[in-house]
Amino acid sequence: MFLKRCMPIALIAIVMVAIVSPAHAYDEIPPVNPDCIDCHGTAAGTEPAGPHGGYLTTTNKCVTCHTVHRAPAGGTILLPAATIKGTCDFCHDGTGGKGVYGVLAAKIPAVTVAAAHRIDTTNVVPGGSSGGGSATGDFSGITTDYLTCSDCHSPHGANVVAAFTGDRARSTDDAGGLGNVVVSSRLLRKRPVTATGDVTVYGSDWCAGCHKGRLSGSGMASNHPVESSVNLPPGGAASMHYYQYVAKVTTADVSTTTKGTLGKSNYGYVMPDPRTADQTGHDPICQQCHEDARSVGNVHPQQVDSTEVFTLTALDGAVTGDNPRFQTFPHESPNTFFLVELNDSLCLNCHAPPP
Ligand code: HEC
Ligand code: HEC
Ligand code: HEC
Ligand code: HEC
Ligand code: HEC
Ligand code: HEC
Ligand code: HEC
Questions:
Q1: Cβ–ligand 2 contact at 156 (below 6 Å)
Q2: pLDDT of residue 67
Q3: Which of 128, 170, 241, 275 could form a disulfide with 135 if both were Cys (CB 3.0 to 4.6 A apart)?
Q4: CA–CA gap between residue 56 and residue 61 (Å, rounded)
């Protein structure tokens, strides 16, 4: 069987189109179905960056995207599609409900998208000016300045942040199955387009590369306190929290804490009040409030109940009871503003109700 799980329906359609239109990234001469290596650029599943990096004189990855002599007329720099998004969707199917965009709409019944980093739709960044108002960014998408994939991701895996643990499971073909933990950079640029400096780790400072006005400290606009390089904890930069290093409850039903990654767990979304030694002096990072929607802290105050632990039993939100059901942050979310929980339920994850 050629058409493995990770090849979405829409892609099969693209492959079929390739029979009549000889202008696609991989070699469309029979066998028509792409082999694993045509997309992965290497033995599938062995490198989380697939064709996006690990280039050697002995690999043959460039041609998975750039066709040297047969790129379509509408394409740019020898890419298979006329837009960056089109190039990415070529393999990361954006409509079949397997990926990071289009997943909510593809569900039956469809789930409403309440927040998104929309592609090729806008260049206005809410909270993008240091005073707290919106800013207009000069991004890389169509009309030359709308937001697109490569404003956050480096297609070649160049100058990317340090590897971190993500929530999402990618394929049931994985040797580790759904439990496989992908630790990688996600190709996140150290300097997202419009940011003015490099960040080496994924955390508040990375988001603030575009959303400058959502940091707290240094005379910025008034915001909920956020841990970042302009609002360092008492221990200084060396003890600053970021996605791969936060204070989180040790396990279910306890108020003790430990330090570790926010990924593949729900334990970092609550903060016992009164604070523990690990938390004292530390403010939350953006992703402790803005991440995939999930249920935490709703049974016992500022704790994760045994019914609220991280649960992933199917790919791409197929099972409604999974917690988080969707792992599409920061692409799309069923919650407004990508909030982990809505209304007071968010605040009560970390604050005892005032008397
Ligand atoms: C049409 C392009 C394409 C082909 C052909 C393809 N893959 Fe994939 N594969 C992908 C993409 C894109 C992803 C990432 C999926 C995602 O993020 O939703 C992926 C993900 C995977 C993963 C998950 C790896 C991880 O880091 O968790 C495995 C395993 C995998 N593929 C195996 C295979 C095997 C085996 C074959 C050949 C039988 C194959 N793939 C053929 C595009 C392809
Ligand atoms: C996953 C798809 C993909 C692969 C694989 C890939 N590229 Fe690219 N490449 C792109 C995209 C997308 C752009 C446009 C980048 C942008 O506008 O930000 C690009 C741009 C370029 C450019 C123009 C300059 C630049 O950096 O923007 C060159 C040169 C280039 N690629 C060479 C290569 C070479 C050489 C390889 C193999 C070692 C390679 N690419 C592999 C997707 C890819
Ligand atoms: C030729 C097929 C192909 C194209 C085109 C492509 N990708 Fe990928 N991409 C893959 C495969 C295969 C993987 C590896 C999946 C795995 O093994 O986990 C991957 C992985 C990724 C990852 C995860 C990297 C990591 O380190 O965990 C990101 C992010 C990504 N791609 C974004 C993009 C973007 C943005 C574009 C458009 C500029 C794009 N891709 C175009 C095939 C492709
Ligand atoms: C490359 C620039 C860039 C980066 C990096 C970035 N954003 Fe955004 N953000 C935008 C733009 C542009 C919009 C407007 C998107 C739209 O209207 O579809 C936006 C919108 C938002 C929204 C409002 C979404 C809605 O639908 O109401 C939130 C919340 C947000 N971003 C949070 C974050 C967080 C958290 C991070 C870090 C994980 C982040 N952003 C990283 C550019 C960026
Ligand atoms: C505003 C910035 C931003 C934009 C725009 C964006 N991404 Fe991402 N993307 C991220 C971040 C941040 C992550 C890591 C999320 C995590 O693991 O918690 C990510 C993760 C991913 C992953 C890896 C998911 C996994 O399984 O680990 C893929 C694939 C991906 N993005 C593809 C795309 C494609 C394709 C586009 C455009 C159609 C796009 N992204 C646009 C910020 C962005
Ligand atoms: C304590 C929780 C919390 C933290 C931490 C947090 N936010 Fe928010 N954010 C919210 C809530 C709640 C909203 C909903 C609208 C509101 O109340 O202003 C929001 C709204 C937003 C919006 C969209 C509306 C607007 O006014 O701009 C953006 C963009 C945003 N946040 C970005 C960020 C970034 C970037 C960070 C980190 C630098 C961050 N947030 C940290 C809770 C938080
Ligand atoms: C992820 C944990 C977390 C969430 C969620 C959260 N907070 Fe906080 N909040 C903190 C921490 C940590 C501080 C720093 C002081 C402390 O330890 O209480 C803080 C401080 C505050 C302060 C004092 C601000 C100052 O300048 O001293 C207020 C007011 C506040 N939060 C309100 C809220 C509201 C309202 C919400 C819901 C929209 C919320 N918080 C959600 C963790 C959180």
A1: yes
A2: 72
A3: 128
A4: 9
Residue of 66, 92, 193 best suited for mutating to test ligand 2, as the one with most atoms within 8 Å of CB? 66
DSSP 214: G
Higher pLDDT, 247 or 70: 247
Among protein residues, the one whose CA lies closest to atom 24 of ligand 1: 45
Amino acid symbol at 264: K
Structure tokens at 235: 């221990």
| Model pLDDT for residues 118-147, shown as the tens digit of each residue | 999 999 999 999 889 999 999 999 877 999
Residue 279 and residue 227: Cα distance in Å, rounded? Answer: 11
Beta bridge partners of 332: 116
Give SS3 for 9: helix
Rounded to two decimals, what is the model's pTM? Answer: 0.94
Whether 125 is in the pocket of ligand 5, judged by its Cβ within 6 Å, is no
Compute, in angstroms, the gap from residue 289 CA to the centroid of ligand 6.
7
Distance from Cα 223 to the centre of ligand 7, integer Å:
10
* Triad 253, 255, 258: Cα angle to 5°: 105
What three-state secondary structure class fits 309? coil
Q: Quick one: pLDDT at residue 325?
A: 98
Ligand 7 surroundings by CB, under 6 angstroms = 224-225, 271, 275, 283-284, 288-289, 346-347, 349-351
| Predicted confidence (pLDDT) at residue 18 exceeds the cutoff of 80 | no
SS3 assignment, position 333: strand
DSSP 337: G
Protein residue whose Cα sits closest to atom 30 of ligand 5: 100
Residue 290's DSSP bridge partners are: 339
The 10 Å Cβ neighbour count of residue 261 is 19
